[in-house]
């Protein structure tokens, strides 16, 4: 029998670009070209000087337009990535207790971070099995409701809407949008903090967090910071995790600490590209087209099936496909990689015999179609 990884896929059916990572995701050639061209003037420049501040201002303006931010909402940037923002939420946005949805590795980690904070109460955690989602429910004495728009580990997309009654109790709605932002539709008015990292749909590198904050979230951060500064307060907010400092710096179009300038250059170019193409309406439609190509293929296949059984919960950003037990997903991934098709492996902690495909806006829908033909070819010739 032919070793699967030695299968040579005909060039005629290969995708034009074989990058399908769920994060870091594909960075477009145009962004790399911009990095080379703009980098001559910008790389090695202080982030507190006009050239970089103009770059950050362009990013903020572009994201404001992309997400149609309401009056009073601000685009805030900080160092450390979305996982750092989990700690920022516990330090700076939860006054006493959060309620969290937990339905995969990343939403679960968000909830775990709330549980680890020593100066707030243990969160109420609403769990569901992988491949499904569960949103937190209304509870007295909760001042923040938290969940993930898109669970990257399982390919589940959850609704973004305020918990009934939460606005009346003054609670914030805080959404981890790392793999959902710019790939899934969203009404930002339903959130107070919609935050992400740029290495998914925003097509850049990691190490940065971006948050769209409501006036209520900005006010909450200010109040908690002032309380933490009072003598005898049990709450400690490190400067690196201070949302108030991040807000103040972002208003000056800079970050608290030195950012990776290359990340900013590629991010600015991607946001400009998305808006030029038609904004969120265009990008979400493109992701939907790619995702439906994969789900339809898997549904028709005699050896594959969508992992998420509820069509309404299937992500249009990260697609997870289970394979028949007779076909080793690791062998298929290896064969695809040997032919230049990369990062189709399932999430390691989930431990399923499955493929996982990032279908962010940078990925050409035609390449997703080609991927399905390549998988079929490898299975047929294994």
From TrEMBL:
Gene3D superfamilies: Aspartate Aminotransferase, domain 1 (3.90.1150.10), Type I PLP-dependent aspartate aminotransferase-like (Major domain) (3.40.640.10). It catalyses: 4-(phosphooxy)-L-threonine + 2-oxoglutarate = (R)-3-hydroxy-2-oxo-4-phosphooxybutanoate + L-glutamate; O-phospho-L-serine + 2-oxoglutarate = 3-phosphooxypyruvate + L-glutamate. Its cofactor is pyridoxal 5'-phosphate. This is phosphoserine transaminase. Residues 146-341 form the Aminotransferase class V domain. It holds the Pfam family Aminotran_5. It comes from the Bacteria. Pathway: Amino-acid biosynthesis; L-serine biosynthesis; L-serine from 3-phospho-D-glycerate: step 2/3. GO terms for molecular function: alanine-glyoxylate transaminase activity; L-serine-pyruvate transaminase activity; O-phospho-L-serine:2-oxoglutarate aminotransferase activity. Its EC number is 2.6.1.52. Catalyzes the reversible conversion of 3-phosphohydroxypyruvate to phosphoserine and of 3-hydroxy-2-oxo-4-phosphonooxybutanoate to phosphohydroxythreonine. Keywords: Amino-acid biosynthesis, Aminotransferase, Cytoplasm, Pyridoxal phosphate, Pyridoxine biosynthesis, Serine biosynthesis, Transferase. NCBIfam families: serC_3.
